[in-house]
Amino acid sequence: MKQRDVIVIGAGAAGLFCAAQAGARGRSVEVLDHAKKVGRKILMSGGGRCNFTNMYAGPENFLSQNPHFCKSALSRYTQWDFIGLVAEHGIAYHEKTLGQLFCDDSAKDIVELLLKECDKAGVTITTRCDIVSVEKTESGYTLNTSLGEYQCESLVIATGGLSMPKLGATPFGYKVAEQFGLNVLPTRAALVPFTLQDKDKDVLAELSGIAIDVNAQCNDTSFREAMLFTHRGLSGPAMLQISSYWEAGDALSINTLPTEDAQALINTARTDTPDALLATCLNKVFPKRMVQSFIEYHQWRNVPVKQLSHSECEAIANTLENWQIKPNGTEGYRTAEVTIGGVNTNELSSKTMMAKNVEGLYFIGEVVDVTGWLGGFNFQWAWSSGWAAGQVV
Ligand code: FDA
């Protein structure tokens, strides 16, 4: 039987960071993970370069049933703290866009940073360890595992969400929460591409590979980023972002011309080039390959613009700026970057991440009902929540 002050279950971003913090305070810490390798999502993230934080991270970039919950941790361990640590480790990085910071070289640098911090703090990391059961004792917790029994005073659950089961995701954290009587909010895939209804897919699949700048809106939230047509549906940053706000049955409102006045564009064409076809007019602002399919999809008449009636012009302009499309669904956890929902924040202290009614039991990272936007925010939540628990476990 092994005795530790702190056991962290989950060797991902939040778990490793928390373990390093606790170890640095002199606590004996062991991290247990069922996977063969630690930090697999970190290695996959940001196209292999890990978008490890965002310069503009703030509470407004997170979804949660209680939007105030994340404020404490985010303000006590900020993006600038993590950026400082990255610099201390000599990792070169750059801003790609919108404050998103990526490693110049490889996401491996971030995993190495975490492993070095754990090593410096005397943390033991054990992989390929299945947790069979968790029980509360008078002085802490007993874990039954495939590698024997463990006892600890503080137990930190950092097993993440349900996205990408291939990378080791399981509902373990939610089950532990329920075992100890904590409420778990319903979960759903987020930061995920949309799939389309057959009637839309049949035409739009032809546009696969084309990306355009859009403003995508749903449920009073909008994102101005790129949208990518795929052979399954709609993807790209704008679609991933808005997917977090979308619920089954909702329509998306997409402005495909966010920098232009569509009505003015058509009016100018009617004055300057009245004999030009509608397609010729639209070719000026959209990729050529897109225009023909888009005209067919919307059943517009591809005639000289002078032949279009006023109401036709108005309808075209309106659709270009406010295209209503009802996705069939999303690609689900298979390709989602994150999971919305999870351990209800009402059950946790926002200062320490400990369960209010279960002494010594902590939840950090994505398992908690705090979900960031695309752009480095989810890792920042992992660092901030891991840090907060790491100060007290
Ligand atoms: P995380 O999922 O990282 O770690 C959980 C750990 O628990 C894993 O090691 C897992 O093996 C382990 N575990 C699970 N069940 C277990 C069990 N039953 N027993 C033992 N161990 C168990 N975010 C961002 O900010 N910038 C980015 O660039 C990206 N990019 C990105 C790409 C892809 C492809 C994905 C899937 C996700 C991202 N994200 C991201 C999101 C980000 O990866 C995610 O929010 C964090 O990794 C969450 O950190 P956690 O430590 O909470 O969970």
Structural summary, described in words:
The protein is of the alpha+beta class. The protein folds into 2 domains: 1-187 and 338-389, FAD/NAD(P)-binding domain, CATH 3.50.50; 192-328, Translation factors (Elongation Factor Tu (Ef-tu), domain 3), CATH 2.40.30.10. 31% of the residues lie in helices and 25% in strands. It has helices at 13-24, 40-44, 71-76, 79-88, 108-120, 172-179, 198-204, 237-243, 262-272, 278-283, 288-298, 310-321, 377-390, and strands at residues 2-9, 29-32, 51-54, 62-63, 93-95, 100-103, 124-126, 131-136, 141-145, 148-157, 184-190, 194-195, 211-218, 221-229, 233-235, 252-255, 323-325, 329-330, 338-343, 361-363, 371-372. The strands form 5 sheets. Strands 1, 2, 7, 8, 9, 10 and 20 form a 7-stranded mixed beta sheet that branches. A 7-stranded antiparallel beta sheet has the order 17-16-13-14-15-12-18. Strand 5 (93-95) and strand 6 (100-103) form a beta hairpin. Helix 1 (13-24) runs parallel beside helix 5 (108-120). The protein is elongated and about 85 Å long. It starts with a strand and ends with a helix. The model has no long low-confidence stretch (mean pLDDT 97). Dihydroflavine-adenine dinucleotide (FDA) binds at residues 9-15, 33-35, 40-41, 44-46, 50-51, 131, 158-160, 163-164, 168-170, 172, 337-338, 365-366, 376-379, 382.
